[in-house]
Amino acid sequence: MAIYGMGGIGKTKLAKTTYNMNFDKFDGGSFLADVNKTSERHDGLVSIQRKLVSSVLGKNVEKIYSVDEGVNKIQEATRCRRILLVLDDVDDRDQLNIVLGMRKWFYLGSKLIITTRNRHLFDASEVCRCKMYKVTPLNAQESIRLFSWYAFGKEQLSEDHKNLSENVILHCKWIPLALKVLGSSRCDRSIEVWECALRKLKAILDNKILEKLKISYDLLPDDDVQNLYLDIVSFFVGKDKHCAVTILDGCGFSQ
After folding, report:
1. Residues contacting residue 38 through CB under 8 Å, at least 6 positions apart
2. Following DSSP, what letter does each residue of 88-109 receive, concatenated?
């Protein structure tokens, strides 16, 4: 199964919850977090393989010196075991191809879950056979409940902070990560502190949120698309779609 959506939307949380709820139904498993970031290290893929084998076997495996050796050890570890495997934040087609190559070794009944920001990783015909699940932003009521739990420890907004809270939620754009970070940081603060935070929020999002969301921006295919994205969010948010398309077409962008 593939879980995809924008950064901060809750893909990792959903995959982790699914893993924790079902792990004991399998002979072994592994939750491999931040695959993209880990694979960027010089020994990244080997490190991922080492963690996978160690988790499945239930013991620490230290000696894997190459990707090819890791492939063999994964095959041995998964040959007769039903496993539950999660690969979190897969970003590159090469990472995905390695995973797809592993599927033929998995014992009958094993399950694989992949999370990614990049829906186009799954355009290849072989990948399209897996189930796809798009994570969408929360609705208004869900956003209020999530923010309230982190800010006030209950499902309802505090009456003293209701108007300010609704403004904060609006500026979070119903993104779970933003609601969680800002709700936690506002807990037990005075109204004056909330008002100050809201003024800052209107100018810039929290650094933790920006760090996550910037990854999605960096995944855009080239400088032209990134610049187009910046033009849209800078000048066309809330504008009529047809008007925006007409202007962009006039600048040389096709619809």
Report:
1. 32, 44, 47, 48
2. -S---HHHHHHHHHHHTTSPTT
Q: Count Cα neighbours of 195 within 13 Å in the Cβ-side half-sphere.
A: 4
Does 5 have pLDDT greater than 80?
A: yes
pLDDT for the residue 125:
46
211-230 tens-digit pLDDT: 655 655 665 667 777 777 77
* Token pair recorded at residue 127: 């990948």
Closest C-alpha to 74, from 37, 96, 45: 45
- C-alpha to C-alpha distance for 119 and 137, rounded to whole angstroms: 16
pTM, two decimal places:
0.68
What b/e string do you get for 189-201 counting C-beta neighbours within 10 Å, with b at 16 or more?
Answer: eeeeebeebbeeb
Which homologous superfamily does the CATH classification assign to the domain defined by 2-134?
A: P-loop containing nucleotide triphosphate hydrolases (3.40.50.300)
Whether 25 has a pLDDT exceeding 90, the answer reads yes
Identify residue 74 by its one-letter amino acid code.
Answer: I
Q: What is the CA 246 to chain-centroid distance, rounded? A: 33
Indicate the residue type of 169.
I
Element (H, E) at 86: strand 83-87
Give CA angle at 146 (143, 152), nearest 5°: 120
67, amino acid identity: V
Q: What pLDDT score was predicted for residue 16?
A: 92
If DSSP codes are grouped into helix, strand and coil, which group holds residue 8? coil
Percent helix, strand, coil in the chain, to 5, is 60, 10, 35
pLDDT at 20 over 90: yes
